[in-house]
Amino acid sequence: MSTTSTARQDAGGPGPDTGPDGPDARGGRLGRIVRSPLGWMLTGLIGVGVVSGLTATGPGPVPVLGAVAAVAVYWLVMRHVARRSTPETARRGAGREALLGGAIGLGFVLVSVSLITAFGGYSFSWAGHGFMAVVWSAVMVQIGTAVTEELLFRGLALQALEQLWGSRAAIVITGLFFGIAHLGTPGASAWSAVAIASEAGVMLGAAFLWRRNIWFVAGLHFAWNTTEQLLGIPVSGHTSEGLFTADVHGSAVLTGGGFGLEAALVPVVLGVLLAVRMFVLARRGGRLLPRRSA
Q1: Cut 0.85: pTM above it
Q2: CA distances from 136 to 17, 64, 229 (A)
Q3: CB atoms inside a 10 Å sphere around CB 205
Q4: 32, 16 in Cβ contact below 8 A?
């Protein structure tokens, strides 16, 4: 992990280049706009979003190849448009961070599902699909989803917005947009958007502020989605082949109904508690950016 000073410097982005031969002088007003936090955020969102849109539902390893391409686009935008380094995607320690995030994501889903099952909300039966085919498909799709969504929401949006308004405002805004972005999924409602914003958007934002590492939040996101899919629970309204078939019983408040686990009350409570803990750890580590004075 980076030291506190490094985290502040990298999260804060590049300083203005006001010299007569600097990039602002060469690029003029348009260059300054593009290199502003909102400018490079939008540039990156378009670039990574296009890659994700073209590869997310592709066959076999296409989603993973799309994730690799999305990381490359992210790096190009950050280095050549935002003019900042990218310690959050460093290869050194990436595996360790991904495994740590994955362990937290796996534990979060298993505890949530176990509690709902104990209250009679879920029951499971073996689906009988081919084991390797189901696992391979789930892993490929969810790697692509986790990496590209984390680059979009935490790598680009959160880091750009915290330069403008500080970490606290950035985590709230990106959390809200994360919930809104899931309104278009099957079975979505106002409650599911609030639930996603709270348990996922805010928690993943707090996780990024704590570790300042894309691989950590992508690992958490990947383990969460993959575990749900393999258990046969809809992932944000999307139902795919899993190793098990999940039968839902009782109130949608307990089970999440057709939308899946994310709309259940138990993971919302657990997610908010985790988010608070991670945010406190980020603050203690000096990894939060204050709001910039006018």
Answers
A1: yes
A2: 48, 11, 12
A3: 28
A4: no
